[in-house]
């Protein structure tokens, strides 16, 4: 079988992690090129490929050079948030499948650039939203599809991840989060929670997101943290941050369902994506890992009784993908999600099909960031979320082309 | 010691419950009158008083008759939501302390009626928000005051209570919720979660609520429930409900803190008030009953480790009121909160002081309901929350007059 040839752009922490997974796990993929604006990072990627495969990839600081290579089939984008859309559009223009790491957009116009490039070129573009492939997320999607929760009327989720150390370390680490937290105030990372919720709610396939409001708390977490760790971050002395500690975004959908997203990355707490699905017949709550099904004899005042019963339901409703590939996926780390999402992307490239997370998903999920920025800047006004499909969401034919890793 | 003489208005389920607690637990209180629009309910209240005390109270369907009694010191309002403010204003005009059961207002103007009546008469008015006196809420307030969580930047809470049976049973039960859910769409019951949060955030005492947005999901829970229990509720056949299943309200405060409130009463789940406090140094989460304190060695990816550690912190930071009265309070039922809040009210009446939850708290907490109704009706626009204190929140002298049950 002919191998898929890919170029990887962005060799920071995430890029190296994903490259490692590809090299270790994806037998049908050849990494033909690695790229980073920083020479040392590009070199590190090149070294990794050579060590694993014995073959020297193109190693470059120029993304254009990779995108223009005749020999590659797909571009994988692991670079800073600001670069995702321009790289994706350019790759589509050059006929290369796009797999782009998660992150929000900076302007609404950029999101349309993505969908318009797809419509012009016909080249698929997939956000590599690994959380859509989490074991819990897929089991819950399975439960929703089987009608366990009745009609879904509300979902919530959050990116609850204490990143103070990563953000404050952004000068040494050359990390894009630092500048984003310093100058912007928005839901800057919506897709880990929104992706799986969008699949549950059939967003862009019979349903769509209509409008949102977004509200940011004051920004005290990072400044407090930096002050208390002043010896560790002398270069941040006196830094002020615009990014509120907690950003709450409420989205309404065409079918009347609502979605609440919380960005929560600069206060102390344990990690969670807060994945919550509320239906007329039952619910799932990630924070207590519990399924609650409608039952007149339920013990309504003893929530603890239901804590942690998710194991039982994950087993019973384990998604076929996890049934088949779960053990292998977990070997790759990151809870197995990276292997799954990469497999989904490479399957589409190999078969020449559309991707299970498509350009309309990518654009609409990324649009939440600039729209939340607008809402916050204007006192939490409701802002419209565009219909990137141009009306096609109502009747859109998005049947599985026969791909195993589709998100049905 | 001279006993406090009170008149109780509203002898529905809640009124009878509170009356029972007063009769059983509050030795310094005489119930001089009971009142309900329904004769049978008024009679039931009267019978209860007579059985417990051997004395016949005034039993009437006319609230005015009670309010005008020269011999009583205070009016307790347990009636339907719609009647709270008119009764409270009238009681203040007649020089009677007001203790009013929780519930939202119907118009913003009504909230001003409350504060203006207080300013005209000098008679205190207290919302009997029992949840401010919950053991967990008071222990967490204690932790906040001791600086355990650093600066508080965000709080959230919800009224997560599956009330489908109570609402659908509203014709037989003559319950006000049924008509409210049928005709209104708002955060109709904000105070169980907002009250304790307002105390944490010093609302109306150095801080105030500035604006809110509110978003309602579609209303599917009740209609699904009624359809599936058609034999139980034949009189509700074909009923439509305006009240969304999940209402998310986001409030901004003068100090930049934010508050998220969730009304969640018509979908299956276990009970919770979702009480969550987020600070720069730590957090409390009711849903997992866990305290998380900033710690570089914390196990960030193992939230389960912290589930249920609240017991330890409740013990260590138990509020003095719970230390002293906890056992007695619990005897009265409703997790001891009713005894506590009634004691707080009667202490103020006895001493002639202001109440720990005052008329400005009552008005501002109740205002969330009509403001959320406005926001929802207008597509989640931000609406201003008035400053009911007329600027006095900044410098307001609200020191404890020496009351044991004050909420410091």
Structural commentary:
2 copies of one chain form a homodimer. Chain A has 408 residues and is an alpha/beta fold. Chain A folds into 2 domains: 4-129, Rossmann fold, CATH 3.40.50; 132-319 and 358-394, Dihydrodipicolinate Reductase, domain 2 (2-Layer Sandwich), CATH 3.30.360.10. Helices cover 37% and strands 18% of the residues of chain A. Chain A contains 14 helices and 14 strands. The first copy, chain A, has helices at 13-25, 39-53, 63-67, 84-93, 108-121, 135-145, 164-168, 176-183, 191-200, 221-228, 310-316, 320-331, 337-351, 359-377; strands spanning 4-9, 29-35, 58-60, 74-77, 97-100, 125-127, 152-160, 209-216, 246-253, 258-264, 276-279, 282-285, 290-293, 383-384. Chain A is globular and about 65 Å long. The interface between A and B is large, with 61 and 62 residues.
State the strand order across the main sheet of chain A: 13-12-11-7-10-9-8-14
The fourth-level CATH homologous superfamily of the largest domain in chain A is: Dihydrodipicolinate Reductase, domain 2
Determine the number of helices of chain A (DSSP H or I, runs of at least 4 residues): 14
Overall shape of chain A: globular
Compute the average pLDDT of chain A.
97
**Nearest-angstrom radius of gyration of chain A?**
21 Å
Q: What string gives the helices and strands of chain A in order?
A: EHEHEHEHEHEHEHHHEHEEEEEHHHHE
Main interface by residue count = A-B, 61 and 62 residues
**CATH class group of the largest domain in chain A:** Alpha Beta
The profile of the biggest β sheet of chain A is:
8 strands, mixed
Number of strands of chain A: 14
Quaternary class:
homodimer
Which spans of chain A of ≥5 residues are poorly predicted at pLDDT below 50?
Answer: none
């Amino acid at each position: 079988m002919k191998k898929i040839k890919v170029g990887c752009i962005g060799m920071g922490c995430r890029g190296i992690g994903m490259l490692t997974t590809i090299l270790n796990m994806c037998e049908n993929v050849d990494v033909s090129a690695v790229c980073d604006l920083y020479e040392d990072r590009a070199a590190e990627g090149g070294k990794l490929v050579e060590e694993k495969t014995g073959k020297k990839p193109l190693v470059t600081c120029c993304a254009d050079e990779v995108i223009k290579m005749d020999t590659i089939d797909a571009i994988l984008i692991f670079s800073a948030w600001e670069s995702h859309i321009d790289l994706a559009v350019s790759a589509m223009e050059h006929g290369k499948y796009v797999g782009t790491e998660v992150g929000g957009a900076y302007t609404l116009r950029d999101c349309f650039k993505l969908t318009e490039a797809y419509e012009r070129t016909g080249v698929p573009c997939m956000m590599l939203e690994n959380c859509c492939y989490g074991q819990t997320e897929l089991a819950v999607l399975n439960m929703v599809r089987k009608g366990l929760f009745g009609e879904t009327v509300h979902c919530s989720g959050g990116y609850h991840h204490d990143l103070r150390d990563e953000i404050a370390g952004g000068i040494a680490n050359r990390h894009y989060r630092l500048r984003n937290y310093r100058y912007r105030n928005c839901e800057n990372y919506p897709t880990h929670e929104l992706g799986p919720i969008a699949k549950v709610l059939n967003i862009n396939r019979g349903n769509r997101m209509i409008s949102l409001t977004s509200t940011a708390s004051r920004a005290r977490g990072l400044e407090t943290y930096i002050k208390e760790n002043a010896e560790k971050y002398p270069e941040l002395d006196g830094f002020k941050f615009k990014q509120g500690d907690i950003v709450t975004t409420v989205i309404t959908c065409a079918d009347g369902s609502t979605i609440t997203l919380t960005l929560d990355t600069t206060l102390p707490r344990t990690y969670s994506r807060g994945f919550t699905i509320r239906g007329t017949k039952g619910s799932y709550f990630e924070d207590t890992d519990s399924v609650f099904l409608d039952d007149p004899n339920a013990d309504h005042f003893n929530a603890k009784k239901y804590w942690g019963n998710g194991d039982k339901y994950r087993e019973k409703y384990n998604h076929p993908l996890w049934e088949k590939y779960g053990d292998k996926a977990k070997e790759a780390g990151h809870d197995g999600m990276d292997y799954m999402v990469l497999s989904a992307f490479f399957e589409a490239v190999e078969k020449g099909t559309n991707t299970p997370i498509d350009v309309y998903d990518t654009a609409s999920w990324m649009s939440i960031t600039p729209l939340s920025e607008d809402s916050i800047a204007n006192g939490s006004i409701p802002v419209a979320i565009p219909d990137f499909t141009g009306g096609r969401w109502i009747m859109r034919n998005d049947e599985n082309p026969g791909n195993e890793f589709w998100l049905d």
